[in-house]
Design goal:
By secondary structure, this protein is mainly alpha-helical. The chain contains 4 helices and no strands. About 50% of the residues lie in helices and about 0% in strands.
Amino acid sequence: MREVIWFNPVSLDGCFEGPGHLPDWHRVDEEFRAFAIAQLRQAGVLLFGRRTYETMASFWSGRAARSADPLVAGLMNGLDK
């Protein structure tokens, strides 16, 4: 049986997304990035809802993400969804 880890930034009042339904409201600093990388390195598969998948797939497979953060882009793109 596989372990399931829920990785989803949420505000104290329960918000998952910002204006325009975008997940860009949370602060991404080096601590968050290091945590995300550690989680991605342990993951065997990523499970998203439809809208989140579409947003993530269009961003992480793009040139901007591969230029800005090639390590995370590689990990995101290399995992089964």
